[in-house]
Amino acid sequence: MRDTKIAGLEKMAAGVRYDILNMLLKCGAGHLGGSFSIVELLCVLYGSQMNHDPANPDWSGRDYLVLSKGHAGPALYATLAHQGYFAHDQLDTLNCGGTDFPSHPDRLKTIGVDVTTGSLGQGTSQAAGVAYGLKLAKRDNHVYLIVGDGELNEGQCWEAFQFIAHYRLDNLVVIIDDNKKQLDGYTQDVMNPFDIAKKMEAFGFYTMKVKGDDLEAIDLAVSYLRRVGSTAKCIVLDTVKGQGIGYFEELMDNHSVKFDSQENQKAAKAALDELEKLMNREAENV
Amino acid sequence: MFELTENRNTKGRELRTSVVESILELIKENDKVVALEADLGGASYFNKINKAAPHNFIQMGIQEANMVGVAAGISIVGYVPFVHTFAPFATRRVLDQIFMSGSYSKNTINIYGSDPGYCVGTNGGTHTSFEDVALLRAIPEIVICDGADDTQVAWIVKEFAKMEGVHYLRANRKAVRDIYKAGSSFQIGKGNLIFEGKDVLIISAGELVSDALDARDILEAQGYSVGVIDMFTIKPLDEKLIIEQAAKAKIVVTFENHSVIGGLGSAVGEVIVENRLNPIFKRIGVEDKFGQVGSPDFLKEKYGLTSKRLVKEIKTLSGKM
Fold first, then answer.
1. Mutate to test the interface with A, among B58, B62, B74, B77 (most CBs of A within 10 A)
2. What is the ipTM of this complex?
3. Which residues of chain A make contact with B66, given a CB cutoff of 8 A?
4. Domains and CATH numbers, chain A
5. CA-CA distance, B293 to B121, in Å (whole number)?
6. What 3-state DSSP class applies to B253?
7. Which residue of A has its CA nearest to B34?
8. pLDDT tens figures, B90-141
9. Are B70 and A125 an interchain contact pair (Cβ–Cβ within 8 Å)?
10. Residue B183 lies in a domain
11. How many domains does chain B have?
12. Which residues contact A271 (CB under 8 A, 6 or more apart)?
C-alpha cells in the first residue's frame, strides 16, 4: 500500500516540478530555488495528508495551508493545478497583467488559496489566527504553516511562535523549509540562524527534523504530528534550495533564476525532459 | 439622526468604557466577536472583557504586529476581531501588517488606537501619534474615525462590527465633554453638520469638536456666523458636504488633534482645491512637530489646539484682529 502511495507521490512531485519549471521558463525568470525545495512537502500535504476538496475549495472541513514564504507561490499553484483546483493551462498566466496567479499567493485571486502572503513573517501570525479561531469554534481542521529559513530573520515569526506555543495550538504544524540559502547567499552568512530545531524547542515546540526530499519520511512525520496533542509542533525540513534538479541545486544564485542564458535554458529543457519521463513512468516499472 | 446635548460641559462615560461596553454588548449578540489586547488590558479596560467573556478575549502580550496578523487570521475563519493598543502602536508600528494582512487581503480588523495626539499625556513623545491618520489614509479601503464623545464612540464600535474590512477608531481613553445626546446615531462617511454659518466654516473631528463649538460661541457673540462640521469619518470623506458648505463660506478652517500634514486638514484641502472652491483656507493642527510629555491640557496649549487659538486664527484670517 505504502509503496504505491509513495510511487504516486513521486510522480506527482515530478509533475509539480515540471509545471513550476515550465511556468518560470515561460516567464523568463522566477523564484525557482525556494519553490523546488518544498515540492515534496506540498505533494505529501495535498496528495496524502490534508483534508481538502478541489471541487469544493470552500468546504468547511478543509485543512488550511499558509505559505508564509509567499515567493514560492508557483510551487503552490502547480500543486493546486495537479489536484484539479483549476486547469493546468491557467498556470501559463503566472505574473502576466491581470492574472489570477500573481508571484505571491493572493486569497482574493487564486482558487484554493486561503491566506494572502508575500510580506515575509506575516503568514505566521495569520496562520496562528486561523488556528486559534478553529480551536475556539471547536472545529477539527488542521493548519499547515510553511515558513522559509531566511524568513526566520523576521521578528514577527518569533512573536507568532511564542503565541502558538503559549496557546498550545496543536491543530497547527509549523514547517520550516531549511534550504540554507536566502536571496543574498547562505543563511549562515546573511544572518546566522544557528540551530533552528533547538531554537524551536526552546520556544516550546515539539520539533522533528525531517529530510525534505524523502516523501515517505515527510508523510510519516506529518501523519504522526497530526495525532500529537497539547503542544505546539514543528518540522524542520532539511532541504536543498533548487531541490530535485542537480543543475539548479548547484547554481549559487538560485533564489530567483533568470532564463536569459543559453546554459540555463538548456538545463531547464533537459530537466523538463527528465521530469516528463518520471511523470510518465508506468506503475509496474517503479 | 443626532441630537446635541443640552449641556456641553458635562462629561460622559470614559471612552474606554464606552468601547468595552459596546464590545460586550456585541458579544452578547454575536459570539464571534473577539477582543485582542497587547498587554494593556488594565489601561484599556479590555481586562473587563476577559472577566465577563473570557472565551472572547485573546491576550496577545506585547506583540502588536502579531496581534494584527492574528486578528486578520481569525477573521478568515469567521470571527469579528477588535484590537487595542495605544494609537501609535496600533498604526505606525504595524503599518505593513495593517496593509497586507488586513486591507490588501480584505480581512476584517477593527482597531481601537487609544490616546491619540495630545491625549497621550505623560506617556510622552514616544507614545504620541500626530501622524496615524496620515499613515492609514493612504491605504485603500480603510475606514478612519475620530470619536468625538462617548455616545459617538459607542455607536462607531457597534457600526464597525457590521462591516467587513479594516476600521480604525482613534479616541481618548478618558472621559471627554458631551456633544451628542444619548441615542444619537450617525452614518459612516457622512459628516455631521452641527451648525450652518455664512462667514466661517470649522471642520473638526474627535474631541476637538467640543473646542470648535466653544470657538463658535465666542465668534457668534462677536457677530460672526460660524458653521461647524464634525467630520468624524475622515475616510471615506464626505466630499459632498464639504463642497456644499465650503462653497458658502468665506473662511474654512480645519481643526485637528494631528499633524497638519496628511490628516483631516489635508483631506479637506484636497477637496477644496480640486473643486475650485475659493474660500480663505487654513489647517489648524500640529505644525510638523514631535510630541513630548506633559498633561493633556499642557500639550493642547503647547501645540495650539485650543478654542482660544482657533478664535484668534479665524479673526486673523478675517482681517478683523
1. B77
2. 0.97
3. 124-125, 128, 156, 159-160, 162-163
4. 2-285 (3.40.50.970)
5. 6
6. strand
7. A133
8. 999 999 999 999 999 999 999 999 999 999 999 999 999 999 999 999 999 9
9. yes
10. no
11. 2
12. A21, A245, A247, A248
